[in-house]
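Pilot study result, target chain (314 residues):
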Amino acid sequence: MNLKDCARLLSERDEILLVTHKNPDGDTLCSAAALCSALRRKGKTAWLFPNGETTRKYLPYVEAYFAPEGFAPKFTVSVDVATEEMFAHGFEGKAELCIDHHPTNSHYAKKELIWSDRAACGEIVLELIKALGGRPTKEEADLLYIAVTTDCGCFQYANTSARTLRAAAELLELGADYRALNLRFFRKISGARMKLEGMIYSSMGFYHGGRVTVATVTREMLREAGAVEDDLDDLANLASKAEESELSITIREREDGSSRVSVRSNPTISSSELCAVFGGGGHDMAAGCTIQAPPEKAKEMLLAVVDELMREKS
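Predicted structure:
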């Protein structure tokens, strides 16, 4: 669909549920919340599916949009969800409209607005709100600023484009409180997070002359640091900070003993290509997957594939 078609479809629907993805980040949560707000201003009944994995950092911005118990939607929209397997835990059903920016989207919805050249879904929702016929409010601008900046690392990641910066400038003009939001999301961390980062850096592995970096986060490390889920935002980018790193892998041990893998890379190496081997996906420079093995075994499996990819690139 194009932007006008999508806006028209939403204008024709009511009792709308917006669904986010597992392990929700600022883009999925705040893009959905901003769209929910805009739909309500058009007189629609709209709610977010109550994503139980929402961390304390994001709850103050999105909790008021969570659907009450018993809400029965007539139209469901997914926001920033690449595949049906990524729907928030507890959601059962189908999305009739998908709004997304992932190039690996599996095209599971009957209708879709997918712009894979955008750094964040928030960029798409900004344009969609305007197409719905209204100027975004200050609250919507705050939400979309969170969405855009958290998905591009406050404009540090390689997915940042001139279009991303123009969107951010527009959000500032609309009243986004960038000073307070930057402080909250990018400049302050807890003492437990500081301790955990020290443990991660001290145990990080370097391979292929430092071009590949691997960080492992075990449940024991979390216990020792006193870290909880709220302390774990953006762990995936720690290993990528090494000066020579072209491909960084973060392996986090899950409660069931499996490993959640996040990969970051520069434009010459595809993160999604590596993750696809293990049934995952994402963007060329940021992707993820789950491996049904403990961290050390997962690390061994990943490095075996990395060795092959590096030989192909040499």
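One observation from the pilot: Residues 219 and 255 are 8 Å apart (CA to CA). A full batch analysis is planned for the follow-on phase.
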